[in-house]
Amino acid sequence: PRSIFFSRHGESQYNVEGKIGGDSLLSPRGMQYAKALPALITDNIGEKPLTVWTSTLKRTIQTSQYLPYTKLTWKSLDELDAGVCDAMTYEEIEQAYPDDSANRDEDKFNYRYRGGESYRDVVVRLEPVIMELERQENILIIGHQAILRCLYAYFHHLQQADLPYIKIPLHTVIKLTPKAYGCDEERYTLPI
Ligand code: F6P
């Protein structure tokens, strides 16, 4: 049976600084993850053919750089656009836009950043990606937290309200194997 593999990019410079969005490079730990990823993949999927999909952002492309497979970049896999809050920390957002922070806590799925997107918007823009995923064989997606939450919720049939809170840790590959009903899941975490 074919499987779909999800991984967030390795830790980025913005992750270290607690900033959201942006297009930063990987941190030294993130680079270690990128270097360890090929062995993690071969150990767990063997010789099966695999195609790697990344976003257009540097941190996912950098994370894929040592993988010896065909790669494709999708603009639709770019991280949720935080609009005017891009490149800010959550504390800075709370200071600058306290009402927005409260609204987001109230309804995180529907909250749309000023000049940016909501989780609902991301679910819509991921539709073509999901259509293509349904037709493909083994795919590894190196993505972003909000994006992978949406894809994960789709394959596990999770509720919209729960979707923005799904835990997708760094430095972990999630393997989903679709079955007649739902998906089997395994997780592989690198101690980096
Ligand atoms: O902090 C990393 C990040 O991918 C941000 O770029 C993004 O805005 C955020 O996570 C999404 O998580 P949440 O919706 O919980 O803020």
Automatic annotation (TrEMBL):
It comes from the Eukaryota. Substrate binds at residues 8-15, 59. In the C-terminal section; belongs to the phosphoglycerate mutase family. This is fructose-2,6-bisphosphate 2-phosphatase. It comes from Collybiopsis confluens. The lineage of its organism: Eukaryota, Fungi, Dikarya, Basidiomycota, Agaricomycotina.
